Amino acid sequence: MADESALMRSARFRQEREGDWQRLEELVTKAEKGGVQSLTFAQSRDLASLYRQATTSLAIAREISLDKALLAYLEALAARAYLSVYAPQESLGGLLGRFFTTSAPQAMRRCWPFILAGFACMGLGFLVGYLLYLENSEWFYVFMPQGLAGDRGPDASTGYLRSVIYDDDPSTSGLGAFASFLFSHNTRIAIFVFGLGAFACAPAAMLTFYNGLAFGAFYAVHVDRGLGWDIGGWLSVHGVTELSAICIACGGGLRLGFAVLFPGQNTRREALRVAGRDALKLALVAALMLLAAALLEGFARQLVQDITARYVIGWGVGALWLAWFVLGGRRRT
Amino acid sequence: MSAATMTRRERRKAKRAAREANAARVMPPEGVPLQLAIASVGVRMGAQIVDILITFAAAIAILVLLGMAGLLGITSFQGLAALLFFAIRVPYYVLAELVWNGQTLGKKFMKIKVVSHDGGPLTAHALVLRNLMKEAEIFLPGTLLLTVQVVDPVSAWISTAWVAMAFAIPLSNAYRQRLGDMLAGTHVVHLPVPILLKDLARESPRAGPAKKPAFAFLAHQLDHYGAYELQTLETVLRAQDQRMDQGHYKRNQATVVSIVDKIRRKIGYADVVKPDEAVTFLRTFYNAQRAHLEQRQIFGDRRRDKFHDAQKDEA
User: Fold this and answer.
1) Could B79 and A184 be called an inter-chain contact, meaning their C-beta atoms sit closer than 8 Å?
2) B170 or B70: which carries more pLDDT confidence?
3) Is the CB of residue B74 less than 8 Å away from at least one CB of chain A?
4) Is B229 on the interface with A (CB under 8 A)?
5) Residues of chain B with C-beta less than 8 angstroms from the C-beta of A145
6) Whole-complex ipTM
7) What single string gives the DSSP state of each residue in A249-297?
């Protein structure tokens, strides 16, 4: 080995720090294998301070050293250490708790105009579909997606419509299959409504409006036969939750589209990113509500045949959602 | 090469290279920029396929279990399978990236990783967002495409266009971000592998006759080359330590001798270098040249390559 003083500056630089780098490398490997929580207190302290030393070394080496291998090593080591030091530190439980107690209801309250617009789209669609059907029942076939309503079109007999609404044996009537189909259909609608919102609002609003059209026409079929109150109960059980979920998803989509249309002082991409924070929470809330709607649909609707009870359950659950959105996450003063 | 003599194609290439180098730079809060190579679309697709296989296998395992327990009807099979795949897939990506710091199993397999665009830590929000967007970007239209018999041609075309767009977006930006990445402020990088090679400057060339230094260089002889040539020489010297077979060894010897000749002519080194001393000559020259260049660099004279004098004149 050449003696110390004969070495050039960059070689001395490396010799003095090599041990620290190797120790950092060991710690990083350990942290990557078992997570940062597998380190002891002393180790995690060393990881942080050695990482900062390594970045300093890298900055110096870039200035004084022409050793390509050394530069590549330090570059890679500092990057690996950076990735372990800046890993997410939150626990899953804490994340979930924060979402339910504060961040979700707060996001809902911040976005209320968009959610209102979502409900307006659906409501207008419903109204138009309803009125158009009463004018001419052929409109039903225009609005309704093929197969979604099963046999329950304008041609079905009143007795048949009633039997579908009040049926305690779903497996024979195929209502169970219809319910699950409706659920997957509505889930898909909700996801599209949210995702399409990023394209300047229009597709999301149109899709929600269209969904309202089909819904309005479907409702009108029953009202036409004097079954309005009954179908209301049948739909209320899960529909209050499910249609609200679609409207909220639409609100999230509109939030994204609004950011694209009116980015304000930011670039469009930046505006989309900022809007994404709330929009995402709306999407998660919508997903949660769809899940709850599926449970209500699968169990409550078949089990509860009494019409008043159906209304109570459906709107009661709706009121619970509303209470969560309005009251959740408020700071006590 | 000056800008005037560059063809249009070369200029475009240089521009793209500069953009890519710029994209690969991450600025951590410490303020020392780090190089993290951007993962290409192909590598990420590989990781995605591994992940799909894993989630698919999990769904099938649960289906088989349900089937053995006799809970499975023939009619509900298809719907249940699709629902199960969906119910496993959605949380899998989010939870895996949260728990393993931006890596799913597929990403671990391909040695890539999600990092935050601004150099800060990955947030839960970013990971949830980028993975939910994946659902809307790829999986939904993708499944729609795969079940193309049941849907009408219009929606088939729409979903084809949608998937094509989802693939076109990453190709059109230097960070290779998909839509979800853009929203979440993340991109995907290759994990760098730190390998510490030994310091060439620390092994003094022993092979020469002991006591007196085998070769000596004067200051003006070291003024010809820059960092690029030095680092190329470093690569050649590091290759000398590898094991070589007979043919390889002969070719290597010829290369080394011709390099020595080139250097001697360039710097005006008068003494003859015997073929068996060629490597020793190169090592000595490397040390002297590196010491010289590093010295100049400290004084603010950074020499990128052997054209450094011409550049100075131009400036």
Assistant:
1) yes
2) B170
3) no
4) no
5) none
6) 0.81
7) HHHHHHHHHHHHH--TTS-HHHHHHHHHHHHHHHHHHHHHHHHHHHHII
